[in-house]
């Protein structure tokens, strides 16, 4: 958000939270329809998670993985590996999603150097992706506005992909083949490519779902040219799209998996990078012979963060929240689709599971709209009606409620949207 607008408009001050609700400084209850920022996936102030964390603080408050290890980080690594059915063999802990991206970039380049003798290997990302806000993660995503004034040649390339928003289901497979052909030619032209990084659903691009066949063909391409496929599931991991990890709905597996956000339910910061055995093995051996990743953060594998994560995963499993996300995601999608038929300023609903977006038609004009798009204006009005959603762009409103969502919550979301959309339908004009 523009800081000038943030200052001009009184920011929403959240004083406390409880379950699916946030309470502002006037004790007004607001349904957290974006799970904080897709991290508070299990709801706020869950007693069993907080008491587990308190107990952990009394036992071991801190530990650096540089000199030793701790039980919680080992247990969490094992648990994550179990959730991937043993596909990944090792987990590297970070403090955020952006750090997970940075770590993966370093791993991919170092691995390529060790395996092929090629240094500074290029990394290909999808256009309109978001992989974080550190320097390399920003340049990797390559968003024109974000890189303005900070750009340098970091060896990242962004390629388009067939976005479902722009093609009918009949056209999509043909487009997938066209894009894969272009990608293949690009890899041939750049023999120093070390990795391709993708999301499965792009949170910051209107919850755009990357076609499964495109991802499956990326896997084949990576196999053919011996390059790594990194999947960024910082937003989609831990049940958000209806499976533990979104890649598990495909017929293929990545080489590196990035996790963050819901990994620790928003209770404390945590991120993780999962790698398959051959990648881990490539760094094992004598340090003098270059067998070292030389990477880590002071608080990597912090026992409190790992304890919080284990408690969150226990809560997720005990309450069958992955199944709930799948089931309620379908119901919410259908309900929203039905709702938008009544409002001609809404274009479509995109996304998967409980990561959805309402996309508005381009060229909408609202009288009080100066710097802000329709999605921002609607989101501000929704807060007055007790619903927090996230405008990820001028024309898209993200809905990503806690995985504990019920049918009543779905009614509340659609009724509230209907009320606010009706207000707007009276004042909207088109360019
Ligand atoms: C897909 C994706 N990757 C990376 C990040 C960066 O994570 P963090 O904000 O924890 O650094 C985000 C955050 O929104 C994300 O959605």
Automatic annotation (TrEMBL):
PROSITE patterns found in the cross-reference section: AA_TRANSFER_CLASS_3
GO molecular function, one term: pyridoxal phosphate binding
Gene3D superfamilies in the record: Aspartate Aminotransferase, domain 1, Type I PLP-dependent aspartate aminotransferase-like (Major domain)
Lineage: superkingdom: Bacteria
Pfam families: Aminotran_3
Keyword NADP set for record: no
Keywords tagged on the record: Pyridoxal phosphate
InterPro entries associated with the record: Aminotrans_3, Aminotrans_3_PPA_site, PyrdxlP-dep_Trfase, PyrdxlP-dep_Trfase_major, PyrdxlP-dep_Trfase_small
Family: Belongs to the class-III pyridoxal-phosphate-dependent aminotransferase family.
Protein name: Aspartate aminotransferase family protein
Organism, as annotated: Paenibacillus crassostreae
């Amino acid at each position: 958000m523009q800081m000038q607008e943030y200052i001009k408009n009184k920011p929403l001050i959240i004083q406390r939270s409880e379950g699916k609700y946030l309470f502002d400084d006037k004790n007004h209850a607001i349904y957290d329809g974006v799970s904080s920022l897709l991290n508070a996936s299990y709801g706020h102030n869950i007693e069993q998670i907080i008491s587990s964390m308190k107990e952990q603080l009394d036992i071991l408050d801190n530990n650096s993985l540089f000199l030793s290890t701790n039980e919680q980080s080992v247990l969490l690594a094992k648990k994550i590996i179990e959730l991937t059915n043993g596909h990944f063999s090792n987990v590297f802990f970070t403090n955020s999603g952006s750090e997970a991206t940075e770590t993966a970039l370093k791993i991919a380049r170092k691995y390529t150097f060790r395996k092929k003798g090629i240094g500074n290997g290029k990394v290909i990302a999808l256009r309109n992706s978001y992989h974080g806000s550190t320097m390399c993660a920003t340049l990797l995503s390559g968003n024109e506005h974000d890189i303005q004034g900070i750009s340098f040649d970091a060896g990242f390339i962004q390629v388009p992909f067939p976005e479902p928003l722009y093609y009918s289901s009949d056209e999509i497979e043909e487009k997938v083949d066209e894009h894969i052909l272009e990608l293949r030619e690009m890899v041939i032209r750049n023999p120093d490519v070390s990795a391709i990084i993708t999301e499965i659903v792009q949170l910051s691009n209107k919850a755009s779902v990357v076609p499964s066949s495109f991802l499956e063909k990326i896997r084949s391409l990576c196999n053919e040219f011996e390059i790594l496929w990194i999947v960024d599931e910082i937003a989609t991991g831990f049940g958000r799209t209806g499976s533990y990890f979104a890649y598990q709905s495909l017929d293929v597996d990545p080489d590196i998996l990035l996790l963050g956000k819901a990994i620790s339910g928003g209770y404390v910061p945590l991120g993780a990078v999962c790698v398959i055995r051959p990648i881990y093995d490539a760094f094992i051996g004598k340090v003098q012979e270059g067998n070292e990743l030389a990477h880590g953060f002071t608080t990597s594998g912090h026992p409190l963060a790992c304890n919080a994560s284990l408690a969150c995963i226990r809560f997720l499993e005990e309450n069958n929240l992955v199944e709930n996300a799948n089931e309620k995601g379908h119901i919410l999608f259908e309900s929203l689709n039905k709702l938008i038929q009544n409002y001609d300023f809404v274009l479509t609903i995109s996304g998967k599971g409980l990561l959805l977006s309402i996309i508005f038609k381009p060229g909408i004009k609202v009288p009080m709209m100066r710097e802000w798009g329709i999605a921002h204006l609607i989101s501000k009005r929704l807060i007055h009606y007790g619903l927090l959603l996230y405008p990820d762009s001028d024309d898209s409103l993200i809905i990503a409620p806690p995985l504990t969502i019920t049918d009543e919550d779905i009614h509340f979301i659609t009724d509230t949207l209907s009320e606010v959309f009706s207000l707007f339908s009276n004042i909207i004009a088109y360019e």
